[in-house]
């Protein structure tokens, strides 16, 4: 099936899959699976009630090449920018203090200082990778970079490079052709190794050819695109520094180069982190659920009923769909979406007795929300289904009649407003209602005689009503048109 091949929701093919039922082997999108705020409440398959498996951003993540702008902007977030400033100052200070040393002890101090700087950078940049891999696009705080774990990761990264160089040299000693092939593969493996090391902190896994090939296979040809992106970014610091130095003194070459080096590294690791997020199945993990999508109990019940009823309808289980919506409405009678869904269900399957009872409730609910036009549409649907709605409140007839006139349903408006003074003699809005009916006769049905009778009735019976003056003016307009 298409949902199994493309990773899309079974019931909405334009929506990415974020959940899977292992038993049914069905994929669901967020559109079909609401999230409760109560984390102890299990999220289950609508069809078999087995717990669903969360897929994270596996299918919902936007391709990394479409988010290029976000990656270049990422280092300008306040946290990242502060870190870039700190690392630029530290690196500049190290070069100014130890850069010109000639003694062995000075060289050792310089190397030690650079190891510390490298540890700080790798600690922060690997944290960036893991933040984004979990779907968190906010840069981590700078303080997170200053821990001893960064030194450990740096040595693992250095060991990875040393081992790769040794393998390359050994391959070239065998033959030039083998050396070129091995060196090319090692170079190609670098992004995957970095992602594995950042994610798992394991040198063994980062060196494992099987694990690396598994990642590349999981990403497909997109891995080559990632490699090209990263290769281009390695040229960024030199190009940017050369451009800036055309306008500033060479004295600033070290801080400028340090800043752009850190900046482009930050862009690169942001891309790597997002690739882990996008292809998380290949990396064997699932990012955490977005807590902002969690709904309170009432909203969850309503959304769940709407989703389940739609699924049951599409599965051909219409009785179950109706039952789900009915149960939800009994609990949330004032919810518009539930009532809309139930009205559509009843009119589609011709249950006129239930349609009559529910439509009376639904029309009043719509009027409560000042949705008079939609209330008129519900009324007309019932008329078309030969369902007679009898309202016990004069204002309901009045407002519906006005909405019907505005929708050019003049005959239906007149039938609804007719004899209102007999049915509800105490209703104060009768003059206004009858003025609406008079206009419906004149402008809608072109029956000026009927309109004149109504206008005369208003003027005679309700001389003090606010609309009476309008009725007199309208009466004069009709008379003048006849001349």
Task: Summarize the structure in short.
With 483 residues, this protein is mostly helical.
How is this structure best described in words?
The longest helix is centred in the N-terminal third of the chain and has 30 residues, at 104-133. The protein has helices spanning 2-6, 68-73, 78-98, 104-133, 149-174, 176-200, 203-207, 209-219, 222-234, 236-245, 253-278, 280-283, 297-314, 318-331, 336-349, 352-368, 372-384, 394-406, 410-417, 420-423, 430-444, 448-461, 468-482; strands spanning 19-21, 26-28, 35-36, 53-54, 294-295. The protein contains 23 helices and 5 strands. The chain has a 3-stranded antiparallel beta sheet, with no helix packed on it. Helix 16 packs antiparallel against helix 17 (372-384), helix 18 runs antiparallel to helix 19 and helix 21 (430-444) packs antiparallel against helix 22. The chain is elongated. It has 483 residues and is mainly α.
């Amino acid at each position: 099936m298409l949902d199994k091949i493309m990773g899309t929701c079974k019931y909405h093919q334009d929506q990415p899959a974020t959940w899977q039922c292992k038993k049914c082997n069905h994929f669901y999108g967020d559109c079909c699976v609401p999230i409760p705020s109560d984390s102890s409440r299990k999220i289950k398959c609508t069809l078999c009630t087995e717990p669903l498996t969360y897929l994270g951003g596996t299918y919902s993540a936007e391709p990394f090449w479409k988010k290029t702008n976000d990656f270049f902007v990422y280092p300008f977030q306040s946290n990242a920018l502060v870190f870039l400033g700190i690392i630029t100052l530290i690196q500049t200070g190290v070069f100014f203090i130890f850069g010109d040393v000639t003694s062995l002890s000075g060289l050792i101090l310089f190397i030690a200082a650079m190891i510390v700087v490298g540890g700080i950078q790798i600690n922060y940049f690997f944290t960036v990778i893991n933040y984004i891999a979990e779907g968190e696009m906010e840069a981590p705080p700078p303080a997170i970079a200053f821990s001893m774990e960064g030194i450990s990761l740096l040595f693992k990264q250095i060991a990875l490079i040393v081992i790769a160089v040794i393998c390359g040299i050994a391959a070239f000693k065998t033959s030039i052709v083998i050396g070129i092939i091995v060196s090319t593969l090692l170079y190609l493996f670098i992004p995957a190794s970095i992602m594995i090391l950042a994610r798992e902190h394991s040198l063994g896994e980062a060196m494992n050819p099987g694990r690396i090939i598994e990642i590349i296979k999981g990403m497909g040809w997109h891995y080559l695109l990632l490699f090209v992106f990263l290769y281009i970014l390695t040229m960024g610091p030199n190009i940017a520094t050369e451009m800036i130095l055309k306008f500033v003194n060479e004295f600033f070459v070290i801080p400028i180069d340090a800043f752009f080096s850190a900046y482009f590294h930050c862009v690169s690791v942001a891309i790597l982190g997002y690739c882990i997020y996008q292809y998380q199945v290949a990396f064997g993990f699932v990012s955490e659920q977005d807590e902002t999508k969690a709904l309170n109990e009432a909203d969850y019940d309503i959304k769940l009923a709407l989703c389940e009823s739609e699924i049951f309808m599409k599965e051909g289980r219409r009785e179950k769909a109706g039952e789900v919506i009915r149960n939800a409405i009994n609990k949330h009678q004032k919810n518009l979406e539930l009532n809309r869904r139930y009205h559509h269900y009843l009119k589609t399957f011709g249950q006129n007795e239930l349609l009559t009872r529910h439509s009376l409730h639904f029309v009043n609910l719509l009027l409560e929300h000042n949705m008079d036009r939609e209330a008129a549409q519900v009324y007309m649907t019932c008329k078309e289904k030969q369902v007679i709605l009898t309202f016990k409140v004069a204002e309901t007839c009045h407002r519906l009649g006005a909405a019907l006139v505005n929708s050019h349903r003049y005959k239906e408006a007149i039938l609804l407003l007719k004899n209102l003074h007999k049915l509800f003699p105490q209703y104060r809005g009768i003059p206004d209602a009858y003025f609406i009916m008079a206009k419906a006769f004149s402008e809608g049905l072109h029956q000026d005689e009927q309109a004149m009778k109504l206008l005369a009735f208003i003027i005679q019976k309700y001389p003090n009503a606010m609309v009476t003056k309008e009725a007199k003016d309208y009466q004069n307009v009709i008379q003048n048109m006849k001349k």
